[in-house]
């Protein structure tokens, strides 16, 4: 029973850790120490980095020939 509990605990911790890693294609990050530990509006803290989401542009749709 202790082994099952330990395995489930490690699995849950690894999921939580991976969920906190920002996807570099959707976030612009900077070192939090660069601003003296302060965050700017709209930023989220991931470890020692302050990140803000990058607006994803939608590709233009081409009009169908008529």
Please, could you describe this protein's structure?
The chain has 66 residues and is of the alpha+beta class. The chain is built from 1 helix and 3 strands; from the N terminus they run H-E-E-E. Strands 1-3-2 form a 3-stranded antiparallel β-sheet, with no helix packed on it. A hairpin with a 2-residue loop joins strand 2 and strand 3. The longest helix is centred in the N-terminal third of the chain and has 18 residues. The radius of gyration is 20 Å and the shape is flat. The model has no long low-confidence stretch (mean pLDDT 75).
- List the secondary-structure elements in sequence, H or E: HEEE
Cα distance, first to last residue?
Answer: 69 Å
Q: Give the strand content.
A: 15-25%
Q: Identify low-pLDDT runs.
A: none
Task: Please state the oligomeric state of the protein chains shown.
Answer: single chain
Q: What is the number of beta strands?
A: 3
Rg for CA atoms: 20 Å
Overall shape: it is flat
**Secondary structural class:** alpha+beta
Q: Whole-number average pLDDT?
A: 75
Q: Can you list the strand order of the major beta sheet?
A: 1-3-2
Largest sheet: 3 strands, antiparallel
Helical proportion, percent range: 25-40%
How many helices? The count is 1
